[in-house]
Amino acid sequence: RANGEKEIFTVGDWVPRQGDRTLDDRRNRTLSDGLPAGATSFEIASARGNVSLTKKDNRWRFRTGELEGPADNVMVENALLSLERGRMTEVIDKPTSSSMQLGLDKPIITVTSNNETLLTIGRKLHGSGSFSVPVGDGAVGIATPEVLREFLRAPLEWSSRRFVWGEHGEVEGVHIRSGS
Fold first, then answer.
1. What is the pLDDT along the chain (180 residues), one digit of tens a residue?
2. Which residue of 17, 55, 80, 111 pairs with 40 in a disulfide if CB–CB is 3.0 to 4.6 A?
3. Buried b (16+ CB within 10 A) or exposed e, 1-30
4. Does this model's pTM top 0.85?
5. 171 CB contacts (<8 Å, ≥6 apart)?
């Protein structure tokens, strides 16, 4: 019944169960909002090196140091999905460890797009193998290596494994010369 009316409404059993959820159960645990609308590039800065990934003509390209070339499209798309849909296992509102202990003062990885930070990854936590991720207002999230795996790669790993690029029929021949 609603407001003492004579009409009776039936609702699914999930409606009353929603009241059993805690505030922590309702918390947004996604890693990031993903790539900003209209953005066609992002950068990953890490201790292993920096890589810039740019989409042009529906293909991703990477640049790291002096090297530039086609990026592994599947790997890049998986990284973007991780940004949007990857979830932290836990969020700690008032961590007992300092930012320095969690590695947030010198993150091991920072993902940015158009000078906007999308994701910051602190150091690996002792015992769990998971990583700390700042979520704002001093709170810290915990993310597993599986969720962050795309961002933990060395810069050169973003390159495509394809040997030849081009449309079918454009390649007339291939010459391979050994360096030894």
1. 577 788 887 777 766 666 666 666 667 788 888 888 888 999 999 988 999 999 999 899 999 988 998 999 999 999 999 999 999 998 888 887 777 778 788 899 999 999 999 999 998 888 888 999 988 888 888 999 999 999 999 998 988 876 555 555 666 777 778 776
2. 55
3. eeeeeeeeeeeeeeeeeeeeeeeeeeeebe
4. no
5. 164
Helical spans, DSSP H, in the chain: 14-17, 73-85, 99-102, 145-148
Question: Could you identify the residue written with the tokens 């890490």?
Answer: 46
- Beta strand ranges found along the chain (DSSP E): 41-46, 49-56, 59-64, 67-70, 90-92, 109-113, 116-121, 131-136, 139-143
At residue 102, the 3 state secondary structure works out as helix
Instruction: State the amino acid at position 144 in one-letter form.
Output: T
